[in-house]
TrEMBL record:
<feature type="domain" description="EGF-like">
    <location>
        <begin position="108"/>
        <end position="139"/>
    </location>
</feature>
<feature type="transmembrane region" description="Helical">
    <location>
        <begin position="545"/>
        <end position="567"/>
    </location>
</feature>
<protein>
    <submittedName>
        <fullName>Zinc finger lsd1 subclass family protein, putative</fullName>
        <ecNumber>3.1.1.4</ecNumber>
        <ecNumber>3.4.21.75</ecNumber>
        <ecNumber>3.4.24.86</ecNumber>
    </submittedName>
</protein>
<feature type="domain" description="EGF-like">
    <location>
        <begin position="140"/>
        <end position="171"/>
    </location>
</feature>
<keyword id="KW-0812">Transmembrane</keyword>
<dbReference type="InterPro" id="IPR006212">
    <property type="entry name" value="Furin_repeat"/>
</dbReference>
<feature type="domain" description="EGF-like">
    <location>
        <begin position="382"/>
        <end position="412"/>
    </location>
</feature>
<feature type="domain" description="EGF-like">
    <location>
        <begin position="493"/>
        <end position="524"/>
    </location>
</feature>
<feature type="domain" description="EGF-like">
    <location>
        <begin position="220"/>
        <end position="252"/>
    </location>
</feature>
<dbReference type="GO" id="GO:0004623">
    <property type="term" value="F:phospholipase A2 activity"/>
</dbReference>
<feature type="domain" description="EGF-like">
    <location>
        <begin position="188"/>
        <end position="219"/>
    </location>
</feature>
<dbReference type="InterPro" id="IPR009030">
    <property type="entry name" value="Growth_fac_rcpt_cys_sf"/>
</dbReference>
<keyword id="KW-0378">Hydrolase</keyword>
<keyword id="KW-1133">Transmembrane helix</keyword>
<feature type="domain" description="EGF-like">
    <location>
        <begin position="266"/>
        <end position="300"/>
    </location>
</feature>
<dbReference type="GO" id="GO:0004252">
    <property type="term" value="F:serine-type endopeptidase activity"/>
</dbReference>
<feature type="domain" description="EGF-like">
    <location>
        <begin position="350"/>
        <end position="381"/>
    </location>
</feature>
Length: 569
């Protein structure tokens, strides 16, 4: 027996004999105690039962557990389990709205997040929310948006029955010259359309255009037509104001000399005897060799002759028999030469030099390839340099070789973003939310906030087959420090000690973090950051124990002194 300043850590001061306090061993279950049967602290893997005041074994999942009566309330976990701090239990995976910190503790994400990688910012949001790029947290979309991105009013999809506009807002219907696709997203019609059923098929056209049955595009009617039909001659059915319909369904500024305008603004032929007339029942003036009969109102022959053609002294025609016309070569023919028109006297006159065909000297009817009729002048002008045919200079209908027709009727060497060239050289839209594709269902790149799978873009990242979700992409191989989770098709993090691994757990490593030693699947030793944390914890615990021991010794010393003082007296 010896006298000591303090008892060992697994002993208590026994005051059964108050005259001579002694150090007695704690119960074998205790780490430290205040009495033989009253534990104060317990060894790792045990907890202090507050009813019995003895140490009992924690649940096997716990490395340490909470004092009380429930052995499943863990304070730390056995490897490879993670500590679920909210429920004080050890789990194989954290909840979706939690993240794993460097101490293998499941911590709650910010309340706005659906998932996160740390407690500061979100990685995904619940439906109807988006990640604010400045705060990194999720915020609610505008009430009109079903989903959104970048800002609360930048919608990705809309609540029924609304449609997603091109400017990424939600409205009850698409704007004019737009159509809704299968995902209820408004897409631009072809620029020639007034309305359409898809990006390549017009359903109605603007005034002065007609719906071509072969291409389903709106093409220009002939000059001065307000409406026309789809056939080889593009027959007018209605003219613009101040123009009149001819018998061959063209619109002209004035009828021919031997015609009159009826109530429907259509040019009708005068009686065959008339040179000019105001209606079908009387003549105003008569042709050569005729006179007006005042009783009938029609023109009659002065004399009967076999041929009304007249010649000059050089044997050149001056006038021709109906229905022939006088060519510029002074010969009679059934029709004028190309780039000529028949005037009111049935004499062939030269069209404007820009015209291919015309109805008068100021109005082109058709143009050569690579030209179009300009509405303000009714003359033919050149299309853009890359156009083969066009409606106007900057609105192509088809393109020259090695050029593609874009959605805006421009001819370029490449299609715009989210469009692809079809076999006809026309740029067609990719599938919804796709920024780059080869075909409608062969997307190779998606817009921000969407994920590529099987050639299509989805707003929810899902991987299938032999691909695994890693950094918002489906990959066949996981990045460093992650392994393939076959159940979820995700790349999950290895144990904190592993550089590479096959599964979760500290015994599934293939390679170790720097500073650790590989031993049969385990990485032994301690990471630098873990060592520093443990050193701080041990120093703190030692300080607390020493302070408590000092208090106990001081108290017993004071008691002993008081007893001695009493005995001496």
């Amino acid at each position: 027996k010896t006298c000591v300043d303090a008892c060992n850590s697994n002993q208590y001061i026994d005051t059964t004999d108050i005259t001579i306090p002694k150090c007695s061993d704690c119960n074998i279950l205790c780490l430290t105690c205040t009495d033989e049967m009253i534990c104060k602290t317990c060894a790792d893997g045990k907890f202090l039962n507050t009813n019995t005041l003895l140490c009992e074994a924690c649940d096997t999942s716990c490395a340490t557990c909470e004092n009380g009566t429930d052995k499943t309330k863990c304070l730390s976990c056995s490897s490879p389990l993670y500590y679920q701090q909210l429920e004080k239990k050890c789990v194989t995976e954290c909840y979706s709205n939690q993240y794993l910190n460097s101490s293998n503790i499941c911590k709650a994400c910010n309340s706005t997040c659906a998932t996160c990688i740390d407690g500061i910012s979100c990685s995904t949001c619940s439906s109807g929310s988006f990640i604010n790029s400045e705060s990194g947290l999720c915020e609610l979309c505008d009430p009109n948006c079903k989903t959104c991105n970048v800002s609360k009013t930048t919608c990705l999809s809309c609540n029924d029955p609304q449609y997603l506009q091109i400017n990424q807002t939600c409205q009850n219907s698409c704007l004019p010259k737009q159509y809704p696709d299968l995902t209820k997203k408004c897409q631009p019609c072809n620029i020639s359309c007034l309305s359409c059923i898809n990006g390549n098929s017009c359903s109605t056209c603007d005034e002065g255009m007609y719906l071509d049955s072969k291409t389903n595009y709106c093409l220009p009617c002939s000059a001065n037509c307000k409406t026309c039909v789809d056939n080889s001659s593009k027959q007018c059915t209605e003219c613009f104001p101040n123009y009149f319909m001819t018998q061959d369904h063209k619109c002209v500024s004035a009828c021919q000399q031997n015609q009159y305008v009826d109530a429907f603004r259509t040019c009708q032929s005068c009686n065959a005897t008339c040179l000019t007339c105001s209606n079908a029942i009387s003549c105003n003036t008569c042709d050569v060799g005729h006179y007006k009969n005042t009783r009938s109102g029609f023109c009659e022959y002065v004399i009967i002759i076999a041929d009304l053609r007249r010649w000059n002294t050089s044997n050149q025609c001056i006038t021709c028999n109906n229905p022939q016309v006088l060519l510029q070569t002074k010969k009679c023919a059934d029709k004028c030469d190309i780039q000529q028109f028949s005037d009111s006297n049935k004499i062939c006159q030269q069209c404007d030099p820009t015209c291919l065909t015309c109805s008068n000297s100021n109005t082109c009817d058709t143009c050569e390839e690579g030209k179009y009729i300009k509405r303000s002048t009714l003359k033919c002008e050149l299309c853009g340099l890359t156009c083969k045919t066009c409606i106007k200079k900057d609105m192509c209908l088809s393109c020259k070789q090695n050029y593609l027709l874009t959605k805006n009727q421009q001819c370029k060497q490449e299609c715009d973003e989210s469009y692809f060239p079809d076999s006809q050289g026309i740029c067609q839209p990719c599938g919804s939310n796709c920024s780059n594709c080869k075909q409608y269902t062969e997307c190779s790149e998606c817009f921000q906030g969407f994920y590529l799978y099987n050639g299509l873009c989805s707003n929810e990242m899902v991987c299938f087959g032999n691909t695994y979700l890693d950094e918002n992409q489906c990959k066949t191989e996981c990045s460093q420090t992650k392994f393939k989770n076959m159940k979820t098709n995700r790349c999950d993090p290895c144990h904190i000690s592993c550089e590479k691994c096959t599964q979760a757990g500290d015994n599934k490593c293939l390679e170790c973090k720097k500073g650790l030693v590989f031993n049969n699947g385990k990485c032994e030793g301690q990471l630098q950051e873990t060592q520093e944390i443990q050193k701080k914890q041990e120093a703190h615990l030692t300080s607390k124990l020493m302070f408590k021991a000092y208090l106990v010794i001081t108290i017993y010393t004071i008691i002993a002194c008081i007893i001695c003082h009493v005995l001496d007296n």
